[in-house]
Amino acid sequence: MKLDLQRLLKKGIYSLIANMCDEPFLIQNVRGQVLYGNADDKYPEKCPVGYQDGVIGWVSGGKKTEAIAKLLEHLATSEYEKKALGKETLAKYRELILLYDITEKLAASLDPQEVASLIIQEANKLINANKVSLMLINENTGLLEVIAGLGDEAKTKMSLKVGEGIAGYIALTGKAEIINNLSDDPRFLVGTRKVSSMMCAPLRIKDKTIGVINISSEEPANYTAEDLKLLSALTLQAAAAIENARLYDALKEAFLTAVSTLAETIEKRDTYTGGHTKRVMEYSLAIGKYFGLPDNEMERLKLAAVLHDVGKIGVRDDILLKNGKLDEEEYREMKRHTIYGEEVLKYIKYFKDIIPGVKSHHERYDGKGYPEGLSGTQIDIIARIIAVGDTFDAMTSDRPYRNALSKEVAYAEIKKCAGSQFDPEVVRAFLKAMALNN
Ligand SMILES: [Fe+2]
What we know:
By secondary structure, this protein is α+β, with helices and mostly antiparallel strands. It is 50% helix and 14% strand. The protein folds into three domains: 5-84, no CATH class; 109-244, Beta-Lactamase (2-Layer Sandwich); 270-437, Hypothetical protein af1432 (Orthogonal Bundle), CATH 1.10.3210.10. The two termini are 70 Å apart.
């Protein structure tokens, strides 16, 4: 850190020194420029003002020359310490802001893959490295697998046994490490990648290691204990966020299983031969994928497809199970299953978003459907997709009053109804999905 003697002397120090001395004296900066005293005075002996292995000025004059130089040195050192402390505080503050920022971002995501990508990006911001990877222990195989990476690491599909290589060793011991000279480390798996220095920290939840973050550099880097401290602070956040995302995933899965079981129970009352709900979900998801629905809409589609006929719970048995054709009044009642679906779902906050998909799955693109006669894009996209999946499965399944149609006949029928019963864009996505899936 550079220090200017002139700036140091400004703060009332001149008068203080002058009061101490009864003889004239001269203070010069390192370039010989006079900072205090009479420039015409020349004194043969100059005493240096030392600062950090160098000299920042000179003092000359009477007997107290040396004492003045020592005082200035002392002032320079304390100024340096003050500045250094300020710099350190600022660096700490920056780190805290970054970590806080990461916590905020991580809290907003519940997708394990997204969380992992976010973590490695933030690790790269915090600590300069050209390679960052995040490995998690696969709970089924017990192997440590790269799930997100930056630089070459993004392409690595590496997996290690716990204990194998450096990352494996860190997973085994649960202790973070800096290895600044990898070529000397017997644990390093030579020939895998070009790496000179590395820093690894475990992701831990309670006493269990769930993964490892690796930071490495092709050129020799001098990672410090400070860097490792920062990485460890990040891994603490990362482990909690990944565990949260995993738990959320498991909860979602359990929830979907419960909901599917409910839908299948309802389906058993119906005249379908079974598996209708599951197939409608699969067809709908295939259409959604080729339609280009974003992830959050796919989630909504999945749940709405599973529950599309949940309202049949409110339809009387004699109508729902009737073998022959329904009369007008019975058909009107049967159609009410769309409204009953809304009734069943509207009391549960979690289902609010899927109500349009359930309620409108019998609407038609041309406005001639039920229950509200909506048309075109007035019908929620989820419902427009389920309509195709539902009709296709109904046509290709055996019913008590007719045999299943062949897939080819059903495709032709769906195609024929593009623009009238169905959204033509959805039909296009459906045909694409079916052509590629068969
Ligand atoms: Fe239906």
